[in-house]
């Protein structure tokens, strides 16, 4: 729950309490994030942005939400085959996937620029 104050001419006119959902949905229609949408986001990321990585993302449903796992493409005996990265409700998991992919892309671009600074 968030609290904000309304002021007019420097005078406090009242305090209002809103939930995060009310704040997010103000003027915006939110669509429901389904397990299928999360799976499609992972498949798309694995086939595009994470294609050159040694691992990919996978979403699994749990009793209280979803878990994002990092699965290694070629597991080695000295390394676990998967690592749990994040657990939460569908919207947060979708945001995590998008943020993870953005971070990977940003790091990839930064490493390419540092290898070829004069191009």
Could you characterize what this model shows?
- The protein is α+β, with helices and mostly antiparallel strands and 119 residues long.
- It contains 3 helices and 5 strands, in the order ββααβββα.
- The radius of gyration is 20 Å and the shape is globular.
- The N terminus is likely disordered.
What is the fold's blueprint, element by element?
Layout: E1 2-8, E2 11-18, H1 20-25, H2 35-47, E3 55-62, E4 65-72, E5 82-88, H3 90-115
Antiparallel strand pairs: 1-2, 3-4, 4-5
Helix pairs in contact: 2-3
Describe the structure concisely for a colleague.
The protein has 3 helices and 5 strands, in the order E-E-H-H-E-E-E-H.
List keywords for this structure.
two-stranded antiparallel ribbon; 119 residues; alpha+beta; single chain; 3 helices; three-stranded antiparallel beta sheet
Question: How would you sum up the major sheet?
Answer: 3 strands, antiparallel
What's the Cα radius of gyration?
20 Å
Provide mean pLDDT, rounded: 77
Lateral arrangement of strands in the main beta sheet: 3-4-5
List segments where confidence is low: pLDDT < 50 over at least 5 consecutive residues: 1-5, 17-24
Regarding quaternary structure, what we see is single chain
Fraction of residues in H or I helices: 25-40%
Head-to-tail CA distance between termini = 50 Å
How many helix segments? Answer: 3
Q: What is the beta-strand fraction?
A: 25-35%
* SSE series: EEHHEEEH
Class of secondary structure makeup: alpha+beta
The shape is: globular
């Amino acid at each position: 729950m968030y609290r904000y104050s309304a002021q007019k001419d420097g005078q406090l006119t009242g305090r209002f309490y809103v939930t995060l959902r009310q704040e997010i949905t103000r003027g915006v229609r939110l669509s429901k994030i389904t397990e299928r949408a999360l799976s499609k986001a992972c498949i798309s990321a694995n086939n595009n942005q994470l294609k050159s990585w040694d691992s990919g993302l996978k979403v699994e449903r749990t009793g209280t939400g979803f878990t994002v796992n990092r699965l290694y493409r070629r597991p080695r005996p000295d390394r676990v085959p998967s690592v749990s990265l994040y657990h939460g409700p569908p919207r947060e998991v979708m945001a995590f996937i998008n943020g993870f992919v953005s971070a990977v892309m940003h790091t990839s671009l930064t490493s390419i620029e540092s290898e070829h600074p004069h191009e």
